[in-house]
Amino acid sequence: MNAPILNTALIAMSSLDIAELTGKTHKNIKRDCEAMFKALELDALTFERIYRDSMNRSRIEYILPKVLVETLIIGYSIKLRYWVIQRLHELEAKNQFLQKQLNILSKQYADFDCDLSTAARFLVIGGKQIKPQFNQQICILMKQIQNDLFDEQDDEKGEE
Question: What is the residue extent of each domain of the chain?
Answer without folding.
Answer: 10-76, 94-160
